[in-house]
Amino acid sequence: MAKILSDISRTFSEYLLIPRLTEKQHIASNVSLKTPITRFKKDETPRLSLNIPFVSASMQAVSGAKMAIALARRGGLAFIYCSQPINKQASKVSRVKHHKAGFVESDSNVKPDTLLKDTISLINKTGHSTVAVTHDGTSKGKFLGILTDKDFWEYEDDLEKPVSHYMTPREKVVHGSIGISLHDANSFLHKHKKECLPILDKEGNLDALVFKKDFFDHRINPEELLDSEKRLVVAAAINTHDFKKRVPALIEAGTDVFTMDSSDGYSEFQKEAALWIREKYGDTVALGGGNVVSAEGFRYLAEETGVDFVKVGIGGGSICITREQKGIGRGQASALLEVIAERDNYFKQTGMYIPVCSDGGLANDTQIIIALAMGADFVMMGRYFAMTNESPPPKISMSGRLFKPYWGEGSNRARNWQRYSDEATDTTMKFEEGIDGYVPIVGSVNDVLDVTLAKLRATMCNNGALTLREFTEKAIITRVSEQSFVEGGTSNIVLPDQKTTKEF
Ligand code: IMP
């Protein structure tokens, strides 16, 4: 007969933290959110740590090169998705590795004969008001001029005229040459009182743009996650089918951190892939495994595969229908608590600490905070980052509001056969494990992180903690009844129209 567990599958919203003594040193500016992502022995320093405990999910709708740049600059990581051809994934990794802070590839480009009306549509689509004019309308074409929203009046000027009529032509544009340092580029901008400096190669082709605003952005990003050569750290997902081809290509492109991307990671497939990677590359790369939801699953990965970190979570993701479709999974809080307890046992027994990542189902900032208080070293999120400007899908307007498409890796749309099929050759999907929907846009990665990190630091101070380790060690957590959950919301207050004030 099947073994029936006596516990109930629980979610994060069923728990609350009881404040501990806040001493005078417990202020937000003293809090460190540094957290390990690689296994380490007692009293040793981990090979790699994140500066904030957030990574984005390896999903087509979430983690492209833009997200990887934005998150690494804040001290986290985006796992560039593997549900794409190897060369495409490698080129995204390479884009991030070659990203020079402050030098950005122009993403709004037109030809000189593009009409002003079409250029305005492009500006609205990309949200960027500086448009490069190149001979072929590409980001690397011969540079002919630049157009900003100060060069035309949308409701006064003739929208049918070509952009060459309105742009500032090359001979009048202050520009820099390839090789210029960021410092010199910014001195140029300052001296000429300009917002943007195009950087050209010897032949006059556009290479990059330097924006005044990025200079300040760079200065306020001291948490950037950099490798020993001061390049951004890059993470990528892999599957257990084509890893012998994918991993070498991704390492060649500069990947520092891998995770095996599977809805059920308690498998010999993960062991085989992990051992192959370790044998070939040793500890030079970080490698995560998962997902698991039990002590047993954690032990297997910790002992048999030698992975650096273990991801926890099956069926909790916002787009996930795995539990309904296959009847497997576990409440995310219950799964995390069991795995954390086993991780701590393993540490006591062996002296080896294995970071744990809580993956999926975090519906709001409170749940993120509870997951970290319970002992997750970092959290992986899909929906949270899908709602930002940096996620790959284009914006879509519906009923006067802006949305982005968000779909699961197990949905038909992603056709991610590697993740959900045992047969590498079977690309047909017999059933879906994820849905395809929309999420509202909430701003940039920086915007959302600023708010969440402020709340996390504040709660850590309430808990008398200045580090995440201290946070979980001091955490006293209580279960909430349905009634106290209701009490926790506002009560007996008339709220303004929910439609216009709802926070996401
Ligand atoms: P979210 O943060 O709640 O949106 O969950 C994101 C997580 O859901 C990912 O990191 C994956 O672990 C998981 N996931 C992604 N796609 C699917 C799917 O199609 N079905 C089930 N789980 C998925």
Detailed description of the structure:
Helix 8 packs across helix 10. The protein has 17 helices and 25 strands. The longest helix has 19 residues, at 332-350. The model is unreliable at 420-425 (pLDDT under 50). It has an 8-stranded parallel barrel with strand order 5-6-15-16-17-18-20-21, surrounded by 6 helices. Strands 7-14-13-12 form a 4-stranded mixed sheet. Strand 15, helix 6 and strand 16 (257-260) form a beta-alpha-beta unit. With 504 residues, the chain is α/β, with parallel strands linked by helices. The protein is 33% helix and 18% strand. The site of inosinic acid (IMP) has 24 residues, from strand 21 and helix 12. Residues 57, 59, 263, 313, 317-320, 322, 359-362, 380-384, 408-411, 433-434 line the site of inosinic acid.
Q: What is this structure, in a nutshell?
A:
By secondary structure, the chain is of the alpha/beta class. It contains 17 helices and 25 strands. Helix content is 33%, strand content 18%.
